[in-house]
Amino acid sequence: MDLKNIFHKENCLILQEKTKTEALHEMIESLTSAGHVTDPEELQREIFYREQLMSTGIGMGIAVPHVRYKGVTEPVAALGISHGGIEDYESIDNEPVFLVVMIIVGENQHKQHIRLLSQIMEKLKDNDRRTALFAAQTGEEIYSLMTGTGDE
Amino acid sequence: MNSFSHILESFSPGNFNMILLLGMVLFLGSAGGRLFQRIRIPQVVGYIAIGIILGQSGFRFISAESIGNLQGFSSFALALIGFMIGGELKIQTIRKYGNQFTWILLLEAMGAFVVVGALVTAGGYFLFGDFRLALALGLLLGAISSATAPAATTDVLWENKTRGPLTTTVLGLVAMDDGVALLLFALATSVAGALIGTSTAGLGMSLLLLLWEIGGSILIGSLMGWGLSKLIRGYIAEDKILVFSLGLILLIIGLTQILDLDTILCAMSMGFFMVNFAPKKSRILFNLVEKFTPPIYVLFFVMVGAKMNIRNINGLVAILAALFLVGRTGGKFLGATVGAVVSKAPETVRRYLPFCLLSQAGVAVGLSVVAGQTFPDPLGSIIVMVVTTTTFVVQLIGPPSVKFAVDRAGETGLNITEEDLLSRSKASDLMTNRTMIGEGQTIEQILHIFSTQDDLVYPVVNREKKVIGIITIDNLKDTFIASELSPFLLAHDIMIPLVGTCPEDATGAEAFALMKKNNRDYLSLTDKEGNCVGILEERTARKKLSFKIMELQRKADALG
User: For residue B132, what are the contacts with CB-CB under 8 A and spacing of at least 6?
Assistant: First the structure.
């Protein structure tokens, strides 16, 4: 999958909120105002239900909230950078989260779901890119770091 | 007004048009069969009873003329029965039971012939005071008494899905003792002709005719079987195979009628050839033909009942019929038992075989009609009436006694196909696994479940234990590309919606039909409250079924 079709500049943001709940709301709002999802209440419910089952903070300062959801027909993702770190994310390594990738796929896109997750994880495994993302100052910067063609 | 009276007339008994009559016969006949089955009497008896009620003895809804018009169906039924019996006679089986067959066949047929012959001759002499007439009567009725009706007997066997030495012996015997009966009848006719001085063909001539009848039937049947097995080789479509087979069976009927051959024997040879020389294709073929047979059988048996006329029975006939019945039953019991002992047949055969040899029908009645046409009255008509009367009695007690015998011998229900088992079993019995996956379980944990258990589909439940989806092996496979994610991926992330639910007490067949409809090879079983109790998987269910069938087969093999 071409990440250019999945990430959009307007969904790449520097997070203002400091708590997990607020930060996730901020990202959902960005997706909603950009018109990428309909029925944001349902999306919230899904996202927070999933977080309840098990936190998506997977360590290394990264969190990957992800859901299958009927409000989209094609996969879409948002990426938020928190410079101060989100302390209450309950990551697996108990460290604060600096990068949140929210991945949303259509209700029946089971395969795309896993593939997209794996593809994004592959990108974030790269130390240099991760450090650059953590330090990014604008949405533009985040977007080009994630979709950049440098090492495709 | 005119047309109204015309309509009224059409509804008066005996005036039904053929289609209405057929409809009535099939409808009431199968209803009767079902009714009798409920009270554990073989369905055949129900068909015949309905026939008796509708026919000559009862309301005469079925006129003698209609019976004549429907004669073709009887030939069709007999040919089908012959064909199906032939299909049961595998060379292997015959080799295994051959010795047994021959001894029992000769002794039970001869037993009936001798005992009936002696009793009827004695009784006839007492009644008529004419030894020659009495002896002729004894010989002819004795010969006729040796025949056993395959139709009613095999119908009980097939209805009860029997398998084992008794079943095999009975099938072989009923198929072949018509040959012995024909032989004895040919001999008896010649001797009787000589005794009462009618000019029938000489002994040599009738033996030659008999040789033609038996040899010709086997030859033509085998040729047809050979042709059919060549023809169906190129056909895969089931409907074409069915049409071909039925076409050939009808051809056989027509040909045997023209050539004066034995229809049952001929059809049997065809079935025998098919099953032994083209076993794979013929299994499909026999299954197809078997599905086609029920309406023909119902029609046939109802007609058998309709033809009987209890109003013709008088004192003389009653006495001779009683002697015939006692002699035939005693002779068959004695002959079959001695035959079984001599040939060292399994105990079940020795004890219960005689109960399976009581039925008499088509061949006996046919021979009596031949006798009726060959010999002048009173001999001719007495034979027809005695045989008709005894057939009436025996057809009603024969099938239940077959049922009794196979039940006692423990052979009932052993010849079950996967299909039968499926319609008898409950969906929940076919389920192998009740494991459920919690939606918060990780891929690693799910992998563990899949690797330690047999199933490929599991229900996913939420904290309230409500089923919210399923995980199949395919969903699990999809996660392999993201194996580094497996500690973080949950059942919730990969489950798919549940398609198709079915109550756990539905039959296996219903559950399988639902799967087919949903285009899935699994479905969820629910209890009375609609809660999922587990997933039924076609693959594991079929495995369970075939184990069960193998177990039944072993049981049947263990019988001897």
Answer: B195, B196
B477 neighbourhood in chain A, CB within 8 Å:
none
Contact B475, B494 (CB under 8 A): yes
- Considering only CB atoms, A54 lies closest to which of B482, B490, B496, namely B490
Q: Report pLDDT digits (tens) over A93-126.
A: 889 999 999 999 988 888 888 888 888 988 888 8
Contacting residues for A123 by C-beta, under 8 A, at least 6 apart:
A3, A129, A146
- By Cβ distance, the residue of B439, B481, B496 closest to A114 is B481
| Secondary structure class of B249 (helix, strand, coil) | helix
| Domain parsing of chain B, residue ranges | 64-415, 423-558
CATH, domain B64-415, list 1.20.1250.20, 1.20.120.330, 1.20.1530.20, 2.60.40.10: 1.20.1530.20
User: Could you tell me which residues of chain A have a Cβ less than 8 Å from any Cβ in chain B?
Assistant: 50, 53-54, 56, 58, 64, 66, 68, 92, 110-111, 113-115, 117-118, 121
- The per-residue pLDDT for range B374-429, each reduced to its tens digit, is 677 677 777 877 887 787 788 788 888 888 888 887 877 777 777 777 777 888 77
The complex's ipTM? 0.84
Class of domain B423-558: alpha beta
Domains of chain A as residue ranges with CATH: 3-147 (3.40.930.10)
Q: What's the pTM value of the predicted model, to 2 decimals?
A: 0.58
| CB A15, CB A81: distance < 8 Å | yes
Would the pLDDT of A151 be above 50?
no
